[in-house]
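Give me the fold.
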Amino acid sequence: MEKKLILRGILAGAAAGLLAFLFARVFAEPQIGRAIDYESGRDAAQAALDKAGGLPAAAADPDLFSRTVQADVGIGVGMIVFGMAMGALFAVAYAICLGRVGGLRPRSLALLVAGGGFLGMYLVPFLKYPANPPAIGHEDTIRARSGLYLLMVVCSVAFLIGAAWLGRRLQPRFGNWNATLLAAAAFVVAIGVVMAILPPLGHLAYNKEHFGNHASETPLPLTDTDGRIVYPGFPADVLFSFRSYSVAAQLLLWSAIGLVFAPLAERLLQPRTDGATARGAAPVPA
């Protein structure tokens, strides 16, 4: 049964990844293109300043894939594979929760687990370390930023599981509603402490040559030796649009996983209930 659920989770994830890719290709990809254009223009301006100052020009790294391949094949394959991986994890969580979270129907449980996946795997870590397009951050801090983001994901998922366990323990004493509120409050407090401890993204992105003399998440305006601006800072509207579409794409992904998986799981699990009822036995709890 678990293998059948995981297979259906992978199929649902592949469909959800394809749907999220179509959304990202239409809305998020133009923002990525604008960010790459900004980075190219800034590099050219920096090269002109270096040349005027008698500094050697930095060699440009060759592009292994064209922008067309990156925007279509690269993002498409990446989103579908990511959706399949999240679908498999979703199915494992669904199998663990099945029969252990009260009398929820298979469809309702699928939507509940999908909401938890979106919250724990993406939205909460996003609040601390939001998604950034190209030209944000510096190559020297990639490892540190990746490690801290992964730590934030682990803490978010662990605290979410802990909140679900706490809610079940408090239910007999306080009732469903109050137990849920207490568990949610405990989750918010715990994740808030972690967010306060971990360093902000702006300090990780600090680089005097690229970001100016202040710890800034986005590149500041590029100036010459006299302090004149020769290239503007990163456009805030591009950053806002990219992050908004990133959240929307992830919400679409997890919603699609839940909605596609729900009827598949119900068809798989319902015959057990019907068969038991036909034999006169008590139905298996959904």
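The chain is about 75% helix and 0% strand.
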